[in-house]
Design goal:
The complex is a heterotrimer.
Chain A: H1 9-12, H2 19-51, H3 71-79, H4 82-113, H5 119-129, H6 134-148, H7 155-158, H8 165-176, H9 180-188, H10 193-204, H11 206-221, H12 225-230, H13 239-244, H14 254-279
Helix pairs in contact in A: 2-14, 3-14, 4-8, 4-11, 5-8, 8-11, 9-10, 11-14
Chain B: H1 4-16, H2 18-21, E1 32-38, H3 46-61, E2 65-71, H4 77-86, E3 93-97, H5 101-108, H6 113-116, H7 119-126, H8 131-135, E4 138-139, E5 142-143, E6 145-151, E7 153-158, H9 159-164, H10 176-189, E8 193-197, H11 207-215, H12 233-247, H13 256-265, E9 268-274, H14 278-285, E10 291-295, E11 309-315, H15 320-333, H16 336-346, H17 363-368, H18 373-379, H19 393-409, H20 414-426
Parallel strand pairs in B: 1-2, 1-3, 8-9
Antiparallel strand pairs in B: 3-11, 4-5, 6-11, 7-9, 7-10
Helix pairs in contact in B: 1-7, 3-16, 11-12, 12-19, 13-14, 19-20
Chain C: H1 13-16, H2 25-51, E1 54-55, E2 65-66, H3 70-76, H4 81-111, H5 115-126, H6 133-143, H7 150-157, H8 172-197, H9 201-209, H10 214-225, H11 227-244, H12 246-253, H13 264-273, H14 278-306
Antiparallel strand pairs in C: 1-2
Helix pairs in contact in C: 2-14, 3-14, 4-5, 4-8, 4-11, 4-13, 5-8, 6-12, 8-11, 8-12, 11-14, 13-14
The chains are: A mainly alpha, B alpha/beta, C mainly alpha.
Amino acid sequence: MTTDAFAFPAVARMPRRPAAILRINSVACHTVMVLLSLFCLFPVYWMIVTSLRPANQIFDTTLWPTSVSLGNYVHAMQAIPIGGMLANTFIVAALVTVAQLFTGLLAAYAFARWRFRGDRLVYTLVALTWLVPFQVVMIPNYLLVAHLGILDSISALIVPHLAAALGVLMLAQAMRSFPAEVIEAARMDGAGNWRILWEVIVPSLRGSIASLAILIFISTWNEYFWPLLLSRSPENSVIQIGIQMFMSAEGNAWGPLMAAATLASLPILAIYVLLQRQVVQSFMKSGIR
Amino acid sequence: MIPKSLAVAAILAGSTLSAQSQTIPASVDQPVTISYYNYNLASAGNGADATRRMIADFEAAYPNIKVEAVGANSFDLTSRVQADVAARRTPDVVQMVFSDLAYGVDNLGIVALEDIVPAQELAAHFDGMSPKGLQLGVLNGKTYGLAYTFSTPVLFYNADLFRAAGLDPDQPPQTWAEVKTAAMAIQENTEAAGIAAGIFGPSAGDWLFQGVLRSNDGHVLSEDRKALTFAEPAAVEAVAMLKALADSGAYTNLDMTAAMEGMAAGSIGMYLQTSALQGFLVKGAEGNFELRATTMPRFGDKPQRPNNSGSALVIMSKDPLKQRAAWELMKFMTSKEAYTVITSEIGYLPLRTDIVDDPQYLGEWVARHPLVQPNLAQLEMLEPWVAFPGPNYRQISKIMMEGAEMAVFGGMDPARAMQAAQDTAQTMMPN
Amino acid sequence: MTSIPLDVPRVSPVIRRRRTGWIISPWLYLLPTLATLLLWVYWPLLEALRLSFFQWNMVPDAPKTFVGLDNYLSIFALPKFWQAIRNTGIYIAGLLPLAVAIPLAIAIYTHDLPPRARNIYRAVIFVPMIIAPVVAAAVWRWLLDPGHGLVNEAVTLSGFKPVQFLQNPDYAIWTIIVLTGWKLIGFSTLIFSAANANINPSLIEAARMDGASRWEIIRDIRLPMLRTTILFLVLMTVLLGAQWSFAYIHVLTGGGPLGSTTNIFYLLWDFGFSTLSVGWSSAAAIILFLGFGVMAFVLFRLMDRYSFYDN
């Protein structure tokens, strides 16, 4: 690591702030955080609360259901094959996450490790695809998927998403800050490029990889337009299509809709809880010992 | 009874195209699978359950035919069909929304019934159908679609709010002037909003707007389908009427969901919208307020001229055996039994008016559900939904609606707004 | 693993990386990504470029009519086009504080909290992201309803008239911005947290031992080292802000009232991607790609120039 960090001329000599101001700041900060938390939580809370209300009280505005009922959940599970849809969505999201992490790491490594002819151009080309919203390429992709004969299967949901720009960009950035000396040392120890990537670099990028994994999983989980175009029967669809089935031009079925949406949020919450610990882990746990 | 003219036309068509109409086999004698694109299946609820039951009954009656039902939302359905046609996986039977019917006929290859079905069989099936209803699916003199799930615009109103505002719920407003008076009364004397309507909004399209314009003898398109006419005086007058209603404060620009839920919750006095919402509104009203309905408002003494919303069943197969199977499915879904289910369980109009008074079919249900009466009464006044010509028809419709919205809610002068919209949209017409 | 003492003199990374001509290794590593992107993104874009000069209904054997630049001109001539561009600017300006400034503050603030408080706050901020966008939009619409929404009930209780959050042309766009931001705060906080955690703690320790106050540490160490991530997220907001708000616009306002919430992406979707005209839809795609592509190019250049790598 650099030694420049130790040069803090003027900063170190400034007097500390009086303790009273620090305390007020802390209270103010906490208040702001609490308000922000309420803002973030309230609609979700409302969704859950509505899902627990009985059908004839669905438009009530009390903060807690006057009588808790699981009727909406029962109705939702009977109306659409929730179990199958959740399973499908999970498989698709997991496979896409793994695929994008894998291809992203490989591509980021190429950019971070080598300077080669055309690297700027390729990097720009990759980055530009990030700007392309899915609606733009949806129909040609549909035709290609039909041509490949995978129209009626889950593969159609996975194959177009095997690689994506966001992962490459984020991982390339993270890799660029990786200390070069460590790579040199590993190379001098005789490690090949592949081993350097997987044994030296990746373990220290745990935070970035975990946060990227969360983001990819969520964005695939919540994807709507592509599965909509492909869905032919509820049993082979994903959960977003299932949720949408409770919304129609002739009125939304609020109770089952909230119940289905709550059920659909639980797996993502679980993934977040599992992976977020990795995100905040300190940098120094690996790499340099 | 279908008018003689139609019967004659069908027979003539049949005889001149006798070669073609003999190409579909008389029955399905080998196993075949047909795809059926349906939007009721895309929402969980009564519509989906009833449709699934009808499909199951059909498969039981025709063991050789397997139906692959594909559920797609009504807004995406035509795009799905187009994508599948492009992928060379043309669907067989489609529940096509009326606004896209013309496009489907001109571009996607919807088959005319007279071209594939023997004339006598066709005439026999049409027996008992409302002539106006049948006309809805006719283009260029041929029947391309049979009205399947369709309805007319109806003025729902909250009888309790009427009483609270000093109005008589047994004498609902019949003209736009009366509507304005009633709406303002409700606005002033109660906490509720006066009136909401499903005229504007992205999901509204232009179907209700066309009905309002036509009720004032305005038109959106010229007879020869070459010129747009929604900036002409009669149409502008209708828009100005809506503007005055909005300016009075009694008509707010609520989006479709907000309006629907507001009416169901009892916070809006009147709601002009498709009668297909009846089920939803009835559920909300139960135990809360008395919901009633009447016909669409008129302009003074001119009769109202509603057009329909909804869909028609169309056939798109090219293979003769599949065409026969598709036709059998279509016949089943437009039979007396089917319309009984469609009206009583899903909430649309029956194309077959003879079942309305028949106790074996809808007779009793209609007696028990008076709310459907205005809808039925308007069935005989129905005019077809006008689709703009050419490939840019959707854009033209949007420009027209944006112009009208600017006039009604945006403070723009109606004549200027409609003229500007018409000028822009005319450039998108086919030349 | 070999251990490296911390005081190895810094070697310039540029010299260290091999500068040979054509080497095959990086291309092999790039292959899966490039193959996927070329096949599923660039090929359709090229097709879109070609088709944007035609009028076609996508039916395989139907004729394609050449119309030159008509499709593009029609889109530029749309009455709401310039309003959409203006609104896009408003969206970006409104989203920047919500998508960059506030999450940055949250990530830094919570980093120094005791682990339990930190994790709870971060999880709570993240919760909006687990809800499907369409459902979130539907719930918000209901909460903001002028007739029976909770927010307006609170407003009327405080003595004001109900606010038409989504029906008033002056407020609607800000409502959509806040709702889009509601979801984004968690997303950006996550990214900042990861970047923050990547900062070498020994730097912080050293500064603290030198007597620097918390604010000084933030100002002089964390912020500069987070500069890349900050720029990255600013970039994202500018380029993707219009797309992020799509679900909310689509469900809640449809671009209205009176076009006040239509941004360039929604307009292109409304008149292009969602119609059956392949010509319009392709022209819309090219306009979107080129427009944002040029902006991205400029911004990426800027970002590269001001980036700071910890090497």
